Amino acid sequence: MNVRKKVTVPDLAQWRESGRRISMITAYDVMFARIADEAGVDVILVGDSVGMVVQGHRNTIPVELSDMVYHTRNVARAGTAALVVGDLPFGSYQASPQQAVESSIELTKAGAECVKLEGGVHVANAIDAITRVDIPVIGHIGLTPQSYHRMGGHKVQGRVEGFEAGSRNRLLEDAYAVEQAGASAIVLEGIPYDLAGEITMKVGIPTIGIGAGNQCNGQVLVLHDVLGLSDSKLKFVKHYAGLRNASIDAIRQYVEEVGSGEWPDMEHSFK
Ligand code: KIV
Questions:
Q1: Is residue 211 part of a domain?
Q2: Cys-Cys link to 27, which of 32, 43, 169, 181 (CB 3.0-4.6 A)?
Q3: How many Å apart are CA 215 and CA 235, to the nearest integer?
Q4: pLDDT beyond 60 at 164
């Protein structure tokens, strides 16, 4: 039984004030949501990274809102103490603030306790509209995977001065815009650690980094990377376990035992 106190959106702001760091991890189904929760994670992100990790796409662009509703529902059924954040996929909020509100309502009905969307200045209207119907929003700036084609791939952002999309000053503007629009927190992805530190100092909402150094108020990683189920070699990824090799070994042994007739033995057979 889970005895942890339920994590709520206001906790995030409080933890920023008190200096308690926030841990976030992705999950896409009930089993891993329960495992992450039992491990004590603060926030579970039902990320649109599901498109790459589970669906096998090379980026997150093909993910549909219906996919995110399905996975959010599955994670929500875990009944976690961790806060459940549902990711708005590409095309589900860019067309208009009304579309953003409607998509957020769908994710909320599926069990999301907060939604996340990508972008800065240009999505401020969407964030403002969603928060007006009392759905909390987490922003996401820097290496925003849904901007794959504009960035020319998954490329580190904020390395050049200027106000073009992805440049250093523009990312500061994006962070301010997200905060002013009413976001409860902001994910900083794939930016130099000193820029992430500057944004964290200058905005008044919690920052959660991924590939953004250790000066953020919290950190997020993709579950399959943390567990070593993926073989990602990205610089900002750490495999805390080696479940890919452990899984291959286990399944190989199963295949061998089926082949040899060793499986199933009497212990696992009915009389
Ligand atoms: O979709 C996702 O998993 C994300 C995180 C990597 C921040 O957006």
A1: yes
A2: 32
A3: 17
A4: yes
